[in-house]
From TrEMBL:
<dbReference type="GO" id="GO:0008168">
    <property type="term" value="F:methyltransferase activity"/>
</dbReference>
<keyword id="KW-0963">Cytoplasm</keyword>
<dbReference type="Pfam" id="PF01795">
    <property type="entry name" value="Methyltransf_5"/>
</dbReference>
<dbReference type="GO" id="GO:0032259">
    <property type="term" value="P:methylation"/>
</dbReference>
<feature type="binding site">
    <location>
        <position position="101"/>
    </location>
    <ligand>
        <name>S-adenosyl-L-methionine</name>
    </ligand>
</feature>
<dbReference type="InterPro" id="IPR002903">
    <property type="entry name" value="RsmH"/>
</dbReference>
<comment type="similarity">
    <text>Belongs to the methyltransferase superfamily. RsmH family.</text>
</comment>
<keyword id="KW-0949">S-adenosyl-L-methionine</keyword>
<feature type="binding site">
    <location>
        <position position="108"/>
    </location>
    <ligand>
        <name>S-adenosyl-L-methionine</name>
    </ligand>
</feature>
<keyword id="KW-0698">rRNA processing</keyword>
<keyword id="KW-0808">Transferase</keyword>
<dbReference type="InterPro" id="IPR023397">
    <property type="entry name" value="SAM-dep_MeTrfase_MraW_recog"/>
</dbReference>
<dbReference type="InterPro" id="IPR029063">
    <property type="entry name" value="SAM-dependent_MTases_sf"/>
</dbReference>
<keyword id="KW-0489">Methyltransferase</keyword>
<feature type="binding site">
    <location>
        <begin position="33"/>
        <end position="35"/>
    </location>
    <ligand>
        <name>S-adenosyl-L-methionine</name>
    </ligand>
</feature>
<protein>
    <recommendedName>
        <fullName>Ribosomal RNA small subunit methyltransferase H</fullName>
        <ecNumber>2.1.1.199</ecNumber>
    </recommendedName>
</protein>
<feature type="binding site">
    <location>
        <position position="80"/>
    </location>
    <ligand>
        <name>S-adenosyl-L-methionine</name>
    </ligand>
</feature>
Length: 315
């Protein structure tokens, strides 16, 4: 299947990167290279693009899309949490811009055997972003305790019926292992009142999100590496992050704010004595949202939010 993905907030992201023709830019979630192809067009012979992705299919698609720019493009198969190490390995210590598009790609959602979608009946419960990983969604569904399932569905899916969903999963797997997306979706449907299902969107959406986040450590990776990525930026360099749900957006917003104002002194102190210095400024006081026309053309863009931070080393 051809790797297809419509890049969300494409022009807004490219504009906010403030691309220098001779700069070094990192796309930490390369995907099908939608954003990267626009970045590389703006680079001269001294510019460089480094694309990172853990998905083998994405690497293949991006390599093909960017083949005409091979002299200025380096593609690395890894998780963006390894960005600093991967850049050091190729002799790069500072960059002018970083991009993260944290959404699941259309290819991943539309390829049944990847197991990301709740709209398929017979797809395997997989959900791995990196298929070199051994743990799958099936392992989580069948091996996690009821309390662990409840925790992730409550915290990562923000589903008010998390307790009931976890209970029904455990009861069902006691009879036979849960192996497909369709089986899991059927169990979730039984766990949620019909009157809620008729008004609240697809009943399995939140649970599938929760399992995917847990499996791929998505929030942990983001919160643990954002500070490090900001440190990689040159003076006036920018990091642009596109999120697709409130949990990611909250992490980005709070870490950006902390890097703009890291002071931990009590408010009553007349001057700062903690010695913590700002690393830059938040460019987006409110997130940039897709236009109405983009949401009409690409419904998956509806929940997207773009936040931008600019590095200032001498603040």
């Amino acid at each position: 299947m051809e790797f297809k993905h419509t890049s969300v907030l494409l022009h807004e992201t490219i504009d906010n990167l403030n691309i220098r023709p001779d700069g070094i830019y990192v796309d930490g979630t390369l995907g099908g290279a939608g954003h990267s192809s626009e970045i590389v067009k703006r680079l001269n012979e001294n510019g460089r693009l480094i694309g990172i992705d853990q998905d083998e299919d994405a690497i293949a698609a991006a390599s093909e899309r960017l083949k005409d720019y091979s002299d200025k493009v380096t593609i690395i198969r890894s998780n963006y949490c390894n960005m600093k190490e991967e850049l050091n390995r190729i002799g790069v210590t500072k960059v002018n811009g970083i991009l993260l598009d944290l959404g699941v790609s259309s290819f991943q959602l539309d390829t049944p055997e990847r197991g990301f979608t709740y709209r398929e009946e017979d797809a395997p419960l997989d959900m791995r972003m990196d298929q070199r990983q051994t743990l799958t969604a099936k392992d989580i569904v069948n091996d996690y305790s009821e309390s662990e399932l409840y925790r992730i569905i409550r915290d990562y899916g923000e589903d008010r019926f998390a307790k009931n969903i976890a209970k029904h999963i455990v009861a069902a797997r006691a009879k036979k292992p849960i192996e497909t997306t369709g089986e899991l979706t059927a169990i979730i449907r039984v766990s949620i009142p019909m009157k809620v299902q008729s008004t609240g969107g697809h009943p399995a959406k939140r649970t599938f999100q929760a399992i995917r986040i847990e499996l791929n450590r998505e929030l942990e990776v983001l919160s643990d590496t954002l500070d490090e990525m900001i440190d990689l930026l040159e003076e006036d360099g920018r990091i642009c992050i596109i999120t697709f749900h409130s949990l990611e957006d909250r992490i980005v917003k709070n870490i950006f704010r902390k890097n703009e104002n890291p002071c931990t002194c009590p408010k009553e102190f007349p001057v700062c004595v903690c010695g913590k210095k700002p690393k830059g400024k938040v460019i987006t006081r409110k997130p940039i949202l897709p236009t109405k026309s983009e949401m009409e053309e690409n419904p998956r863009a509806k929940s997207a939010k773009l936040r931008v931070f600019e590095r200032h080393i001498n603040d």
